[in-house]
Write a sequence for this structure.
């Protein structure tokens, strides 16, 4: 993978993580609550929020379901 593509991937992961953190905080949920609602362990939630986790579609779908929003809303403005 080229350096430019790697940087873009990292930018997207970080922006997605910030989106998830902002939504979680807006709901007033601790990471543990989001983990329980999404079925994703809290360590993975923390990695996602820090932009350290390359999210699969199944993970995106689980997060969207937990927030009761369409998956497209989770990536709006990121791509």
């Amino acid at each position: 993978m080229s350096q430019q593509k790697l940087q873009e991937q990292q930018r997207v992961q970080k922006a997605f993580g910030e989106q998830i953190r902002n939504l979680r905080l807006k709901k007033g949920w601790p990471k543990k609550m989001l983990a329980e609602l999404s079925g994703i362990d809290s360590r993975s939630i923390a990695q996602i929020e820090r932009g350290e986790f390359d999210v699969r579609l199944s993970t995106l779908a689980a997060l969207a379901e937990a927030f009761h929003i369409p998956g497209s809303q989770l990536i709006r403005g990121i791509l």
